Amino acid sequence: MSPPPRARRTPGWLWLSLMSFTALMLLIAYETRWVHPDIHAYFSQSGNLTGQQLATRSREYLEESLGILLEESDPDAVQRASFQIELGYGLFDIGLYRNEYACTEPNLQRLDALNDSLGQGVVPPPDSLSQGLLQPIRCLTEIEMDQLDYRSAVTNRFVEETRHHQTLVLVGSLVIYLLGLVFWGMHVFKHRLADRATRESLRWMAQALQDPLTGIGNRSALHDDVLAEKGGTMALLLIDIDYFKQYNDALGHPDGDQLLRELVALIDRALSGKARLYRMGGDEFAALLPCDDPRTLASAAASVVEEVRRAALPHPDHPAGTHVTLSVGGVQFTAEPEAFAAAYVAADRALYRVKAQGRDGWQLGATAVEESRYGFTGK
C-alpha cells in the first residue's frame, strides 16, 4: 500500500497573522514619521512663526530709541538712538511683513525719514518724534498679535490633527491586532483539523491493514511489509488449520473465532515474538520473519506445529485425532516483488503437500532449499 497522502496544506493563516502585525508596525512607523516633521515645522525657530520674534525685537529697538530721544540730552544720545532705529528697521524690513501687512511700507518710510533727520543732527520736536516712532511701533504690535494668533491657530490645528492621527493609529492598531489574532486562531484551527485528518487517515489505513478479528495484519499488510524489507533475506510460513470447517460445524462460529485468536497467540509464542503474523483469510495464516539460514526456517516451521500439538486444543470432529492441528509450508526468499510472488507459490505448494500426506506437519518449498534435505516432518 502506498504511503499516506500528505495532509492538504492549510491556508496561510500564519502568514496572514504575521503580515497583520507587520502592517501594524508599519502604520506606527508611518505615523511617527508624520508627527516628527510637523512638530519640527510648527515649533522650531524657522519658518513663518519667527515673524513674531522679529517684530518683537524690532519693536523693542524702536521703543528704546524713543526713550533715548525723549529722556536723554547728551551729545551721544542722537547717535545711539539712530543706531537703535537702524536695528529696528533691519528687523522690520522683511518680505513677510511687506507682503502680508499694509502698514509696513509707510512706516518703513517714516523710519527712513526720521533716521535721515537724526543723521543730520536734527532732532524733531516731541510731537513729530512720537508720530515718527509710535506709528511703526503700533504696526509692529499688530504684527506681533497677528503672529501670535497665527501660532495659536497652527498649534490648535496641529493638536487636532495629532489627536485625529492618534485615533486612527489606535483604531487601526486594534483592528490589525484583532485580525492578527483571528488569522492566528484560524491557523491553529486549520492545523488541528489537518492533524485530526492525518490521524484519522492513519487510523483508517491501520484498520485497512489489520484483521479485525485477530488484530494481526492482513494480506495487504504482508505485501507492504515485504516491500519494506526490500533486498533482505526473509522466511515466509503459510499456516492452515486442519479441518477448521468441521470445528465450526461442531462448536459454532463464536468458538471458531475464539480458536483463531488462541492460535495467533500460540504461533507468536512458538516464533518467540520475532515474526510478523497475518491472517490471509478464513483458516489460513502467514508469518514473516528474518532468515539467513534455511535451518532457521525449518526450526520455525517445526516450532509452530509442535507448539499447537503441546497446547492440545480440543477438536471434537477431527477425522484423525482429538486435538487441533496445523499444516505449515515454508520458503526462504529475497524480499523483492517478483521473488515474493514466486515464494508465495512455493510455500503454498509445500503446504498442500503436507495436506496431501495427512496434515499435522510442515514442509519447505523447493525454491528455498533442497527438498531432499528439508523435506517434511512427520506427524
How would you portray this structure in words?
This protein is an alpha+beta fold and 379 residues long. Helices cover 66% and strands 9% of the residues. It has 2 domains: 1-208; 219-364, Reverse transcriptase/Diguanylate cyclase domain (Alpha-Beta Plaits), CATH 3.30.70.270. It has a 5-stranded mixed sheet, with helices on both faces. The radius of gyration is 54 Å and the shape is rod-shaped.
| Mean pLDDT over all positions | 82
Strand content: 5-15%
Number of domains: 2
Net shape: rod-shaped
The SS-based structural class is: alpha+beta
The topology string of helices and strands comes to HHHHHHHEHHEEHEHE
Strand segment count? 5
Q: Which segments are poorly predicted (pLDDT under 50) over 5 or more consecutive residues?
A: 1-10, 44-49, 368-379
What keyword list fits this structure?
single chain, alpha+beta, 2 domains, 11 helices, 5 strands, disordered C terminus
Task: Give the SSE layout.
Blueprint: H1 13-43, H2 50-71, H3 76-92, H4 95-100, H5 104-119, H6 126-208, H7 219-228, E1 233-241, H8 244-251, H9 253-270, E2 276-281, E3 284-290, H10 294-311, E4 326-334, H11 337-356, E5 361-364
Parallel strand pairs: 4-5
Antiparallel strand pairs: 1-3, 1-4, 2-3
In short:
It is an enzyme of class 2 (transferase). This protein is 66% helix and 9% strand. With 379 residues, it is α+β, with helices and mostly antiparallel strands.
